[in-house]
Predict the structure.
Amino acid sequence: MIIDAHTHVFNKKAGITRETEAARFWNMETSGDWLVTSMDFAGVGKAFLITYNSDDIRVNISPHDAEKGNLDSALSEEYGIEIFKRYPGRFYLFMDSVNPNKEGCYGRFLANIERGITGIKMLPGFFGVYMDDERFMPIYETCERRGIPVIADTSYWYVNSPGFPIQEPGGKDFTRHLEHTGAVAAAFPGLRIQMAHYGTPQEVGPIVNGGEYKYIAPFVKLMQKYDNLFVDTAALPFDTSPGYPFPDVAAFIKHLCGEIGSERVMYGTDWPYFCNGVSLTYKQGVDMIRLCDLFSDKEKYDVLGGAALRFLADKA
């Protein structure tokens, strides 16, 4: 079974305008219905569905839209849950909005467990903290004890950007940034953590399209040190690639498999941001691996679903 390990859905009809971070979606369908249709056409059996609310990505939303009363309906956890229920058996539900700056964060996390979530997604940088913030520790302990997997988007590529909550006066340092996640992996060896967006390195184009893998070396080193870390390939730079069948992108995924082991490399799209008809279709994203002679049969099995099942502890 093919599994997409990183997707979102947005209810544009509820109020997303051209001025929100979803401006790129204006001429694209972002509904859960279209995602399932795309999955069906590509032969993708299941996907990780990651919810948002406007608080999670508020720094990417214009002040005009941040004041709109219906914005939370567009960037809505409830809409994600609605899609999850509408298509039983098609999604693993991961809830975002783990904001340590809000009172009751841990209680909200426990309430989401009771709602039947598969796991959680951490987006700490958007709240001005790192993965090893002490307020997250009770959450990690509970996840480890209860076998709940965690997706970590450490957002290194946003650090020191204008308006982003994390500003590092001494300059950005990828190795230092990754150490925050390494501390969590070390403290909770039974906690399965998916590193979203292949670690969010800064030099995405040179790494993926230029083959300058030295820039991803700190991330590879981290992955080699902790076997409870997994990685997804969501948000690859297809727009700067020569085009389908994307040999440069395939070569990068092959590099990750060789350095980390395909058993921990998960195919992901970050749909609808990617693989939604702009630089490539959803099916082309899958065929880039499924039909590529660069990968062994084992690597294809792992990347397109086997690694995701391991991350989920085989909760097929």
Summary: The chain has one domain: 2-311. The beta strands are 2-7, 44-50, 91-95, 119-122, 150-152, 193-195, 229-232, 265-266. The longest strand covers residues 44-50. The mean pLDDT is 91.
